[in-house]
């Protein structure tokens, strides 16, 4: 059993436990459930420069503890200050050290920016959880869902006003699971079964993603030239977590990348 399979097994156990404690009706009564959702896809679609989706991530199965001495409301507010287009916050506890508390603290500190609930969504119940904590976007990972599950969950997410980011790791996954109820396609450069990373994955898959879907590249992104190359290949959003989180000041790391991107972009224009 690989890491992804272990995570999904544990996720089903968590969901069963959560359903015993709180019903969908209970989730619908949360104050944040009624908030008006923000659109990330529209922000990215209109972008003329690479847009960074900054992630708050404490640990990962492959790296272990990345940063245990940070507060979500501080880090995410710094991200927003430095120009993040959206925030991604992990809510998986066992494998990534995230929590609903992390998400809520980030949400309350940054009410006017789109936020992605980063987790392994395998059940409709989790969509209501996401809505109840103030998420605007949910993630559907093709590697752990059937095409039918992707379509059903995406459709229900839209019914709740949530946008859908479909994450794929191969052209085959893309072709099997892409459907009209998806808003954005995220290409994860990290293989969730082996945890090896290559940004070539995004370049290979890019030409197979229809223009009607907003493209986002995820994982292994730290070189500004690579980001600009992917931007020219049609990617509008770049989800970055570990690159920032492994530093003592993630917000400053984002600010530095923004400066590097600006310089690299200007240099490329001079060469044209």
UniProtKB/TrEMBL annotation:
Q: In which pathway does it act?
A: Amino-acid biosynthesis; L-tryptophan biosynthesis; L-tryptophan from chorismate: step 4/5
* GO biological process assignments: L-tryptophan biosynthetic process
Q: Give the matching CDD domains.
A: IGPS (cd00331)
Q: Which UniProt keywords apply?
A: Amino-acid biosynthesis, Aromatic amino acid biosynthesis, Decarboxylase, Lyase, Tryptophan biosynthesis
User: Could you say which EC number(s) this protein's record lists?
Assistant: 4.1.1.48
Signal peptide as annotated in the record: none
Q: Please give the superkingdom of this protein's source.
A: Bacteria
Record NCBIfam families: PRK00278.2-4 (NF001377)
Q: What is this protein called?
A: Indole-3-glycerol phosphate synthase
Q: What is the organism lineage in this UniProt record?
A: Bacteria, Pseudomonadati, Bacteroidota, Cytophagia, Cytophagales
Gene this protein is translated from: trpC
């Amino acid at each position: 059993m690989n890491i992804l399979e272990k995570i999904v097994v544990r996720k089903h156990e968590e969901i069963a436990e959560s359903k015993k404690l709180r019903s969908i009706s209970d989730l619908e009564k949360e104050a944040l459930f009624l908030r008006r959702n923000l659109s990330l896809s529209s922000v990215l679609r209109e972008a003329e420069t690479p847009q960074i989706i900054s992630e708050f991530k404490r640990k990962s199965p492959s790296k272990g503890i990345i940063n245990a001495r940070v507060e979500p409301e501080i880090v995410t507010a710094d991200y927003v200050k430095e120009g993040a287009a959206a925030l991604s916050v992990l809510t998986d506890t066992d494998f990534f050290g995230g929590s609903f508390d992390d998400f809520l603290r980030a949400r309350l500190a940054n009410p006017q920016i789109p936020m992605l609930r980063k987790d392994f969504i395998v059940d409709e119940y989790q969509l209501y959880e996401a809505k109840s904590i103030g998420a605007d976007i949910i993630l559907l990972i093709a590697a752990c869902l059937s095409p039918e599950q992707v379509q059903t969950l995406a459709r229900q997410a839209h019914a709740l006003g949530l946008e859908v980011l479909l994450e794929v790791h191969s052209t085959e996954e893309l072709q099997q699971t892409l459907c009209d109820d998806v808003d954005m396609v995220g290409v994860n450069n990290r293989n969730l079964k082996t945890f090896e990373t290559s940004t070539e994955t995004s370049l290979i898959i890019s030409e197979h993603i229809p223009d009607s879907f907003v493209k986002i590249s995820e994982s292994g992104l730290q070189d500004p030239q690579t980001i600009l190359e992917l931007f020219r290949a049609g990617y509008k959003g770049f989800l970055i977590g570990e690159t920032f989180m492994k530093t003592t000041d993630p917000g400053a790391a984002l600010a530095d990348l923004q400066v590097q991107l600006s310089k690299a972009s200007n240099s490329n224009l001079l060469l044209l």
